């Protein structure tokens, strides 16, 4: 009798666990579906101009336009939205680092991934996962090629072709960086800079025009 009762309790316990597991799966699916709906609704609520901005930011920061829309719905400011997207792209949250370290990733690799993210324009999390856990013993040279490392001026926005054109004009590294800053400030377009340089202006003189 005691054995039968024990078996019944065991079966009841298993059934309860199965029911809880099914409820958990259903709950997650409902939450996930709701989350997708919320994101889609956030995107639908944007104006046509803001949708174009969301599409552009999504392309730049390798995420979905809906994700961008959710951030924008909270910040109500595109500059703040861009800052958040940039932070998410180039850094790994501290709590995520902690969890990844528990799973076998080296903390120094996660920090290195953030630095290389800025230098290569690749997402920090993608670099960290490509490097893998400590047990995989992969080298960074297998993940990032030397040709992918951007110069300072390229990190500031110059393309490799633009940087080459400036090098061909015998501009120093510091001058190329100054040109990149001028472009960031939207004082000149790149074509305007090259026209001024070809006309005999120096980068220093262009910088003074920027200040004035």
List keywords for this structure.
12 helices, mainly alpha, 212 residues, single chain, disordered N terminus
Give an overview of the whole structure.
73% of the residues lie in helices and 0% in strands. It has 212 residues and is mostly helical. The chain starts with a helix and ends with a helix. Residues 1-34 have low confidence and may be disordered.
Any chance you could write out the topology, listing elements then pairs?
Blueprint: H1 2-44, H2 48-60, H3 65-75, H4 78-90, H5 94-102, H6 107-120, H7 124-131, H8 152-155, H9 160-168, H10 173-184, H11 190-198, H12 203-211
Helix pairs in contact: 1-3, 2-3, 3-4, 6-7, 10-12
Strand content: under 5%
Main sheet makeup: none
Q: Kindly provide the radius of gyration, computed on alpha-carbon positions and rounded to a whole number of angstroms.
A: 26 Å
Order of helices and strands: HHHHHHHHHHHH
Q: How many helices?
A: 12
Q: Kindly state the mean pLDDT as a whole number?
A: 84
Low-confidence stretches: 1-34
Quaternary state, please?
A: single chain
Tell me the total number of β-strands. 0
- Helix percentage range: over 70%
